[in-house]
Design brief:
376 residues, Lipocalin, 9-stranded antiparallel β-sheet, 4-stranded antiparallel β-sheet, globular
């Protein structure tokens, strides 16, 4: 296991392997057909890394899991597997788009899995052992969260025009800092008020053209929830951009998101956690992995990828883990024959969700006043 794998703990699969050095720990024997539970172990490379895998069987009979890396320099953030299978004694799972996988065989008593962990073309022999409650390693909290009822604002915020040519963008947390990279004020409004660009009405042209970088420190300790991040951006817009606006209604073209006739194909998240989306492109499409997202979260993310607002009418409750492989534009694929499907087909085939274009009365925010940011 390389140092790069240790440092990508948010994406790394943490197999549950116990080596002979842990032989003193209690284990629970299971049949080879029941692998649900907690597995753990140590990867031996230039630096040892302990990992934990929690496995669950869905109501549809499919296996899936969440993996954790312990003792690295990164927080212990659970990462959902993107595929998992058990055929007789043969067990395998993978994490995409990290190009990490494991394949092995369950022992006859069901207490261990002997196999190999692969990261790209590099492989390491692994022994995975099931642990009972007494033997299970504690998983440190990934973050100390802000109190749920906290109403934070950015105590200090630096705002500057984005340097031309910057490739990355987005809104995220970095330690105690809230970071906005390479985004327009219009995008900040859509994020803060959970809207799509069409739902922002009025305002000067620079609202949609000028891009800014923001580095802010909240006035409350702890990691903010998504709702608290949006609260801080709303306050930033009012205080530093002098934004004044009001709500209205307008008939717009929207996408109605419902469950397809096949039913949902997504797995419920094993544990509550912060919503997370990451992924990236390849020559023939994209692979995006979602963890701990509600359908409202997913609709909000989708509408920033599509040309109109997305309304969640799935009726699905709780948080979900899933992977979506899709191609934004078939013409962009290096080999159209190998390209992933477009997002509408991909969602129906892979997630069991349907997007339908309809006209509907939608909420809009009307810009009454906005100014370029005040001095830092």
């Amino acid at each position: 296991m390389t140092r790069g794998l240790v440092q990508s703990a948010v994406r790394v699969v943490m197999l549950v392997m116990m080596t002979t050095g842990l032989a003193g720990h209690a284990v629970v024997a299971q049949t080879t057909q029941d692998i649900a539970g907690t597995w753990q172990g140590t990867i031996h490379a230039d630096k040892e890394m302990r990992i934990v895998l929690k496995i669950l069987k869905s109501t549809g009979g499919e296996w899936h899991g969440v993996l954790y890396s312990l003792g690295s320099s990164q927080p212990s953030v659970g990462v959902a597997t993107t595929s998992m299978s058990l055929r007789g004694a043969d067990f395998a799972f993978a994490i995409a788009p990290a190009d990490e996988s494991f394949a092995g065989k369950v022992t006859k008593d069901g207490s261990s899995i002997l196999g190999k962990w692969m990261q790209g073309k590099n492989g390491l022999a692994l022994t995975l052992v099931r642990a009972n409650v007494e033997a299970a390693w504690a998983i440190p909290a990934a973050y100390k969260m802000m109190p749920a009822d906290a109403d934070p604002k950015l105590e200090v915020a630096t705002i500057k025009p984005t340097t031309p040519g910057m490739a990355h963008d987005g809104i995220h947390n970095r330690g105690r800092h809230l970071i906005i990279d390479n985004e327009t004020v219009e995008f900040m409004v859509t994020f803060a008020y959970d809207l799509q660009a069409q739902q922002v009405q009025g305002g000067p042209g620079w609202l949609r053209s000028d891009k800014y970088d923001v580095d802010g420190t909240p006035d409350i300790e702890g990691h903010p929830s998504l709702k608290q991040m949006k609260t801080m951006v709303r306050k930033l817009l009012a205080e530093r951009f002098a934004l004044a606006c009001h709500w209205g209604k307008k008939e717009l073209g929207v996408y109605r998101m419902t469950v397809a006739k096949t039913g949902s194909k997504m797995n419920k998240s094993l544990e509550d956690g912060l919503p997370n989306q990451n992924g990236g492109g390849n020559p023939n499409g994209r692979t995006d992995r979602y963890s701990n997202v509600t359908m409202k979260d997913f609709a909000s993310i989708l509408q920033h990828m599509l040309d109109r607002p997305v309304v969640d009418q799935t009726g699905l409750q709780g948080q979900y883990d899933f992977v979506l492989k899709w191609t934004p534009n078939d013409a962009d694929a290096a080999d159209p024959a190998l390209a992933s499907p477009g997002i509408f087909t991909a969602m129906q085939e892979q997630l069991g969700l349907k997007l339908e274009a309809v006209k509907a009365q939608a909420d809009v925010v009307v810009i009454d006043k906005v100014e370029r940011p005040s001095a830092n």
